[in-house]
Design a protein that fits this description.
Elements lengths: L16 H4 L4 E3 L4 E4 L10 E3 L8 E3 L3 E4 L7 H8 L2 H9 L12 H5 L8 H40 L11 E3 H4 E6 L16 E3 L14 E3 L17 E4 L10 E3 L7 E2 L4 E6 L7 H9 L1 H8 L14 H5 L2 E3 L3 H39 L5
Parallel strand pairs: 8-12
Antiparallel strand pairs: 1-4, 2-3, 2-5, 6-14, 7-13, 8-9, 10-11, 10-13
Helix pairs in contact: 5-10
């Protein structure tokens, strides 16, 4: 599923036919791929296949493959299935247990979409494509900032797995006073508002950047658990998800009040000895080499989501540089973050405008 991003980018890789002949979903140019499983569906993981190196492509069975008829312009259909309204309706129809919920095929078969003449579909798709191009440029600027942070970390500390600078190494159990679990009660299908309590969704940490807006409101009459409220400086870790998304880690910075961790998220509590700063721990854990090693700790039976236990996570090893160098890193990190936050504000405005434009487009407002 990693070949399809939540922003619609499709980056295929070439494999031998024998590797994909079984256990994969076939698709071809002109098809629309839509992720089935949570949280990929809610995050908008979908793509219009406009090119392939071969006549047939193979992908994860966690994708629905939708093949437009001659009366439907493929990019128009893709733009429709990435709207918030479509995702909201699909999420309400999901079936399965928590963490394994999927959008059923029946939902897509029964889906009713506005269908103007083909030329009008092409016009609408082109307008939305242009709006999306602006949004993607801002996304790219944010990605460059993230890449700079990774480069800064490697320059100052080296790869946390190979440890070329020879820093002393510690297991997480030596750096933490404990790992706290969250709670996953039944919630409303909307965000928490005003003074309501909410529970974080996995999407709050999946990108390795804390997104407090990814939450669901606690149902009226359900008592909150203040002990698991997210606090400033918390290092949050996704213990359970798909293989490519498990072990995501995010640092909570100025979180809104009354947001609780879900059962799928750990809080890594740094010990009072404080051999590591939260910012250093976060950045070390998101380095691809160390994250990849930790992802291999995930277990689970066939058909279940990979899960990393507290015991296995506490055995993970990472290098720990001197505190003065960690503090210097934090100062530089905050400068980059301030620039990134400025870009993100404008990116949020572009996303809102793009969503509003799509809503108008599919209601006949363009």
């Amino acid at each position: 599923m990693s070949a399809v991003s939540a922003s619609g980018l499709f980056t295929p890789e070439v494999r031998r036919y024998a590797e994909v002949a079984k256990g994969f979903t076939q698709f071809r140019v002109g098809d629309v791929l839509i992720a089935k499983i949570t949280p990929c569906f809610e995050n908008g993981k979908a793509a219009f296949i406009n090119r392939l190196p071969f006549p047939i492509g193979f992908g994860s069975t966690e994708f629905h493959v939708v093949r437009p008829s001659p009366a439907i312009h493929g990019p128009y259909l893709y733009r429709f299935v990435t709207t918030q309204q479509f995702r909201r309706k699909g999420a309400q129809r999901m079936t399965g247990s928590a963490g394994q919920q999927r959008v059923p095929s029946e939902f897509l078969r029964q889906l009713v979409i506005p269908l103007p003449p083909l030329e009008e579909q092409k016009r609408i798709a082109a307008i939305l494509d242009n709006a999306d191009a602006i949004r993607r440029k801002r996304e790219q600027a944010i990605e460059l900032a993230d890449e700079f942070l990774r480069s800064l970390f490697l320059d100052m500390f080296g790869d946390p797995v190979t440890n070329p600078k020879g820093w002393p190494t510690y297991q997480l159990c030596e750096l933490l006073s404990g790992i706290e679990s969250g709670w996953s009660p039944t919630c409303a299908d909307r965000h928490a508002e005003n003074s309501e309590w909410g529970v974080l969704k996995l999407g709050a940490v999946t990108s390795c950047v804390f997104k407090p807006e990814e939450n669901k409101a606690l149902l009226p009459g359900t008592s909150p658990r203040p002990k698991i409220e997210v606090r400033d400086g918390d290092v949050l870790f996704a213990r359970k998800n798909t293989y490519e998304l498990v072990a995501a880690c995010a640092l909570a910075v100025d979180p809104p009040p009354r947001l609780m961790m879900s059962d799928l998220i750990f809080r890594l509590k740094i010990s009072e000895a404080q051999l590591v700063l939260p910012e250093y721990l976060w950045q070390a854990l998101v380095q691809p080499s160390l994250r990849g090693r930790i992802q291999k700790l995930a277990g689970g039976s066939a058909g279940s989501m990979p899960n990393i236990s507290k015991e296995r996570l506490l055995g993970a090893v990472l290098p720990v540089p001197p505190m003065d160098q960690q503090r210097e890193f934090v100062l530089r990190l905050r400068k980059v973050q301030s620039i990134k936050n400025y870009i993100a504000e404008h990116h949020a405005e572009a996303q809102y405008a793009s969503s509003a434009l799509a809503a108008r487009a599919f209601s006949g407002g363009l």
